[in-house]
Amino acid sequence: MGRIVVEVMPKPEILDPQGKAVAGALPRLGLDQFTGVRQGKRFELSVDGEVTPELIDAARKAAETALSNPIIEDVVGVYDAEEQR
């Protein structure tokens, strides 16, 4: 069974209150080396068999039409989960 990962992030001009809250909490935990945080979404799509270029294309279409809101989000990654290990 293969897995395709889709990563979605808020567009840079969109406020990210969750990321801002995390960015504010990190220094209180002694983690002050980070200058900002943006929080996104990760989807894992399972497929029968191996991941093919055609399945990656279908996942990209799903990402652009169903998994993200193109007004406020960008699809930043669509890839075979096994290739990223």
TrEMBL record:
Main location as per UniProt: cytoplasm
Any GO MF annotation of the entry: ATP binding
Keyword field contains Ligase: yes
One Gene Ontology term, aspect cellular component: cytoplasm
Claim: S-adenosyl-L-methionine is one of the keywords in the record: no
Keywords carried by this UniProt record: ATP-binding, Cytoplasm, Ligase, Nucleotide-binding, Purine biosynthesis
Pathway membership: Purine metabolism; IMP biosynthesis via de novo pathway; 5-amino-1-(5-phospho-D-ribosyl)imidazole from N(2)-formyl-N(1)-(5-phospho-D-ribosyl)glycinamide: step 1/2
Top EC group: ligase
E.C. code: 6.3.5.3
Pfam family, one: PurS
Signal peptide range: none
Compartments it resides in: Cytoplasm
Family: Belongs to the PurS family.
HAMAP family: PurS
Record note on quaternary structure: Part of the FGAM synthase complex composed of 1 PurL, 1 PurQ and 2 PurS subunits.
Task performed by this protein: Part of the phosphoribosylformylglycinamidine synthase complex involved in the purines biosynthetic pathway. Catalyzes the ATP-dependent conversion of formylglycinamide ribonucleotide (FGAR) and glutamine to yield formylglycinamidine ribonucleotide (FGAM) and glutamate. The FGAM synthase complex is composed of three subunits. PurQ produces an ammonia molecule by converting glutamine to glutamate. PurL transfers the ammonia molecule to FGAR to form FGAM in an ATP-dependent manner.
Protein name: Phosphoribosylformylglycinamidine synthase subunit PurS
The encoding gene: purS
